[in-house]
Amino acid sequence: MRRLIPALSIALAVTLVSGCGTNSGDPAASSSSAAPAAPAASKVEPTAAVKQGMDRSLAGTLTMDASVKAGNQSITMSGKMDPAARTLHLTGKAPEPIEARLIGDAAYLKSDSLDGEKPWMKIDLTKLRPNSSLRQSFDLKSQTGLIGGVVSAQEVGGGRYTGVADLEKAAAAANSEAGMREGLESTAKLAKDPKAVPFEATLDADGRLTALSYTIATKKLGDLVTEMRMSDFGKPVTVDAPPASETEAASEEMYKFL
Predict the structure, then answer these.
(1) Is the pTM of this model over 0.85?
(2) Per-residue pLDDT for 127 more than 50?
(3) In sequence order, what DSSP letters do the residues of 192-207 get, joined into one string?
(4) Residue 136, φ and ψ in degrees, nearest 5
(5) Residue 169: partners with Cβ closer than 8 Å, 6 or more residues away
(6) What is the enclosing helix (H) or strand (E) of 215?
(7) R_g over Cα of the chain
(8) Per-residue DSSP letters for 29-45?
(9) Backbone angles phi, psi at 124, to 5 degrees
């Protein structure tokens, strides 16, 4: 039986959960996410501009690079994704090399920590438990994360914004499905001051979020520093399944742990 270590789930979640979007319920934010935003970005209030910026970034295909550092430990990820088509290709280190591909409801994972006869494990996302961390990681349509808890922001020039986010508000705004809310609540419990997480964000001329960084001071782990960059908006994203000869399906027993 294959063995999935927690670090793999955490690493996948970095690019898909730590700040990926909002769930503000703001009709303006939802309707504007698919439209050019250059005029709107310069007129809206700074907090709304930052929240809408992530929505705009995720409105189409993109490339996302992310890193999370805590002390001398770090996780790095780089991924190309198409949220509408539910396709994703991620590579990174957590700290060992990992790779993940998503095609619809089929997820493929590759890591030295997955001990089996073949290098790739295929997972049917529809079989995962509701609170599965992997379900959370691959839920591209969920609009949740730190951005959902932004309580203040100010523009400092050059498309850059600084502000404060509240992890507890982010959790309350998060989708309760796929374990997203629970993940944010767990992070809030680790933080010294979950209501005051400083962040810096950058928007491009079209109002899309191109960079996000924030630092969570924790009670025992030191500073948890997250940095994300988004680029290549609108470029085609093609993801192929690994060769069948190198892939084996997760066993029914394994789904109890994923």
Answers:
(1) no
(2) yes
(3) S-TT-EEEEEEE-TTS
(4) -60, -45
(5) 148, 149, 151, 195
(6) strand 209-217
(7) 18
(8) HHHHTTS--HHHHHHS-
(9) -90, 110
